[in-house]
Amino acid sequence: MPTNMQPLIAMPIHRMAPFPRLTSDGQAGIVEFKQVVCAGGGGTGLNSEHADIRRRIAELEDRLGVLETENKRLLEVESLLDSLAELTRAIFWETDANGLITKVNSVSTSVLGYSPEEIVGRMHFFELHPEEGREAFRTSALEAYARRDVFHNLVNPAVTRDGNEVLLLTNGVPVIGPDGALIGYRGIDVDVTKQRDTEAKLRESEARNTALLNALPDIIFMLNGDGVFVDFHASSEARLLIPPDVFLGRSIREVLPGEIAENTISRIETVCRGRDATPFRYEANVASETRYFESRIVACSDDRFLSIVRDITDLRRAELEQEALQAQLRQAHKMESVGRLAGGVAHDFNNMLGVIIGHNEMAMEKTPPSSPVMADLREIQQSAERSAELTRQLLAFARRQSVSPRVLDLNKALDGMLNMLRRLIGEDITLDWLPGKDLWPVLVDPPQMSQMLANLCINARQALPGTGRITIATDNITLGPEFCALKPGSRPGDHVKLSVSDNGCGMDRETIAQVFEPFFTTRKQGQGTGLGLSTVYGIVKQSNGYIDVESEPGLGTTFRVYFPRSTTPAVDFLDEEFMPMAPGGHETIILVEDEKSILDMVATMLANLGYDVLSTSSPSEAVAIARRHRERIRLLITDVVMPELNGRDLAWNLKSIIPDLKCLFMSGYTSEVIAHQGVLEEGVHFIPKPFTSRGLAASVRKALNEPVARQGRSE
């Protein structure tokens, strides 16, 4: 070794060598490193450092391989997500921190009409929002960006390329950089326009169905195949009448009464066999009130059934009322028909009885009292008068009996009848009299009132077993529309109520339905004619009143009569003075009767009373007679119904000839010609057939003695 060579001094020798590294985007890169060689020491330090570097290089290469694998898998996941997005028709997107769209998949084309190339880097997400409200939407969204909010199921509208509006369901998360700064957002949009429309239609349908169900008066129960209540619908739970926890989860037999439960189950079985089940009605006691229901069973599915229950209480009550009204109407028609028949029979029968009574009476006058035939004549007279009483009762029922109504205080009138009524019902029966205070006046015929009250008391007496109690009461009452709606034939307004009650055996519904019919009686044959209550019915109707009966077997009977209140003050008919009636006279009377047997009999009666009689069966001949004897004739006695001319028109014609002529009408019943429903007008004199010579004398004398001014024309 040369001596002039200096010893080695350790000096660093720098040499750059390439070194692989990972870039920030995960890609492999090259970096240089410095190799240091030290002089002296045999190079041991260099070798050691070199080995360490190679080891680090190996580690980095291994890590780079792992990163490359993960990066490949990430790319595969991203490709998978893009494919899934295409399949789910969802828009995957990314934006920067200012809302500029930096990435979007191709689904945007089908949903929004914009291709990715038209959106990425060109549009901010808020530019897709409808123009109206866009600025507010941008401000709100960027504020959420600044807060780094997570968007979860936000529904916002978006405008498509062709100007239509779609609805997007947005989910998004912030993307944060290594330095913690907001890089942007990424997320997914799903087109829910059709879903929104479908849901809106569904909500509309549900609202409509709910409104329809709530509008129905029905309660709907759902049952399973075992008859267990599983659900219900009622517009108000108050309609259920029972709380839901009482029936939900329980079977029909546990909740409903036996018959109702069995009817429901049988109809479920019918529906299971594929047949329609008929509705059934039932009644139930709810809160101490009887209510009526109708139930229908329909199939909802294979194992679900609907029990549709409707409260038909009002309907059923209306039906019952209608049935009652129809029954009453049929009864009224029947009574009217019977009344017309009875009136017609009585009219003809009265004519025949008049002849019998008149001739028998004249025969009795000619027969000495000691004669053997006198007893027979008296028997004939009594039988004829009893027959005449029957016809009077028929006429009363038919409302064709002659009446002269007067305004009465019913309490005073009844006070005068009590002694007679007590004798009539007997000492074993207690008669209670309960007069109402300050009773209103009524317009009635006094004799008819006596007859009506006597018949009611006799009927009550016969309902009592031996002893008992009859109560007569009066009261003022105002009938309202509700009462009249339930009681056909009654009229609203002020009335005086007369009630006759007994505590006897009572009547069933079938008997009540026939109680006013002529000849109907529950008594044994020979114990009554069956005309008592029918006479009462006719008297009440002829007085424009209303009669009602209430009775139950074993609980007695009450008859209530309602007379209309009169606006005229009452008079005391018991104290009214009548003009004296003479047995006969010498005046000239013109007699007109189309029935010859009656004409001859009445003419004979009048002649026996001393009157001068001009008789004829023809109204036209009567006019001629009046012209010939106008100076002599003082009274016209005429039948009411005649073929040529009725009695009223004949009287008017004769009065044009004889102005001061007085008139007396006679008939088997009071025709509408001279009376309204048998009620005589003031100043009209009438004698019903049949009549006796004594009765005729009284009527003739009364008509002749009355001033002409009171005998006005009967229009």
What does this entry look like structurally?
This protein is of the alpha+beta class and 715 residues long. 41% of the residues lie in helices and 25% in strands. The protein contains 20 helices and 26 strands. A five-stranded antiparallel beta sheet has the order 4-3-7-6-5. β22, α19 and β23 (662-667) form a beta-alpha-beta unit. α9 (313-366) runs antiparallel to α10 (373-397), α10 (373-397) packs across α16 and α18 (619-628) packs parallel to α19 (647-657). The longest helix has 54 residues, at 313-366. The protein is rod-shaped, with a radius of gyration of 58 Å.
How does the helix and strand content classify structurally?
Answer: alpha+beta
What gross morphology would you assign? rod-shaped
| Biggest sheet features | 5 strands, antiparallel
- For this entry, what is the oligomeric state of its chains? single chain
Sheet with the most strands: spatial strand order: 4-3-7-6-5
Distance between the termini: 183 Å
Number of helices: 20
Q: Uncertain segments of ≥5 residues (pLDDT<50)?
A: 1-24, 26-40, 573-582, 710-715
- Cα-based radius of gyration, to the nearest Å: 58 Å
Number of E-type strands:
26
In percent, how much strand structure appears in the residues? Answer: 15-25%
Mean pLDDT: 78
User: Helix share of residues?
Assistant: 40-55%
Helix-strand layout with pairing:
Layout: E1 14-22, E2 28-36, H1 44-88, E3 90-96, E4 101-104, H2 107-112, H3 116-119, H4 134-147, E5 151-159, E6 165-176, E7 182-191, H5 193-215, E8 218-224, E9 229-233, H6 244-247, H7 252-255, H8 258-272, E10 280-286, E11 289-301, E12 304-311, H9 313-366, H10 373-397, E13 406-408, H11 410-415, H12 418-425, E14 429-434, E15 442-444, H13 446-462, E16 468-479, H14 481-486, E17 493-502, H15 509-514, H16 532-542, E18 546-551, E19 557-564, E20 588-592, H17 596-608, E21 612-616, H18 619-628, E22 633-639, H19 647-657, E23 662-667, E24 675-676, E25 679-680, E26 686-688, H20 693-705
Parallel strand pairs: 14-16, 20-21, 20-22, 22-23, 23-26
Antiparallel strand pairs: 1-2, 3-4, 3-7, 5-6, 6-7, 8-9, 8-12, 10-11, 11-12, 13-15, 16-17, 17-19, 18-19, 24-25
